[in-house]
Amino acid sequence: MKKLFLLGLIAVSTFLTAQKMKVTSGSFAALKGITLYDVTFDYSNLKVDKFKTEEDFLKDKMKKREEKGTDDDFKKSWFADREDRYEPKFIESFNKREPSIQVGKNNGAPYVMTVKTTWIYPGYNVGAWRQDSKINTTITISDKANPDKILLTVDYSDVPGGGAFGNDYNSGYRISESYAKLAKELAADIKKGKK
Questions:
Q1: Which of 68, 71, 116, 133 lies in the 20 to 30 Å Cα band around 140?
Q2: Where does the UniProt annotation place the signal sequence (predicted)?
Q3: Across all residues in the chain, what is the average pLDDT?
C-alpha cells in the first residue's frame, strides 16, 4: 500500500511539473508545408542546476567523486551523453509522434531546426527520493539557404524527464527523457500550428 502511495505521489508530482512554451518570434503557422528538418544541437554557454557555468558544475561533481574515492569518469560521460543519448532520443521521439514531419542530422533538408539547450537540472534518484531532470531550450527554425530568415523561435522551459516507475538512476538517462518530452511537445505544437 505504501509503495502504491509513493508511485501515485511520483505520478502526480510529474504531472504538476509542466513545462512552459513561449514563441519569441515568427509562428508555428509559418512552418506549414515543411515536412523535413535538418536538426542541429547547440550546448554553448550552458548552465547546469544552480551553477553559473557548466564547468563550475563539473568541477563540483568531480571534486565530490574524488573525495569519495570514486572515479567513474563522470565528465567524459556527461559530454558523451549528448550524442549518445539526448540527440537520438529527441530525433526518435519527434519522428514517431508526427510521421508526416521528420527531423534528422545532415539530411539535406532546406530548413534547419536548431535545438539550443540553455539550462539543465540533472535531477536525482537515491532510491526512496528522486526528482525528474529538467531542461530549458530555445528552438530556432530557419531557412538553410538564407539563415537570417527565421520562421520560428520558441522557448521551452522546465521540460521534465524521468524513467517509468522511478527506474532512472542515471542522470544521462533522465536528461534524455527530457529531450524525448521536448520533441513530443514540439511535434504536437507544430501539428497544432499548421491547422
A1: 133
A2: 1-18
A3: 88
Total residues found in the chain within this entry? 195
- Mapped onto helix, strand or coil, the DSSP state of residue 23 is strand
Pairing of the two strands 47-48 and 111-121: parallel
CATH architecture of 2-193: 3-Layer(aba) Sandwich (3.40)
What's the whole-number mean pLDDT along residues 47-68? 90
User: pTM to 2 decimals?
Assistant: 0.86
Which residues touch 74 (CB under 8 Å, ≥6 apart)?
58, 61, 62, 65
Please, which residues have CB within 8 angstroms of residue 183's CB and are 6 or more apart in sequence?
Answer: 89, 90, 91, 92, 93, 94, 97
46 residue type, one letter: L
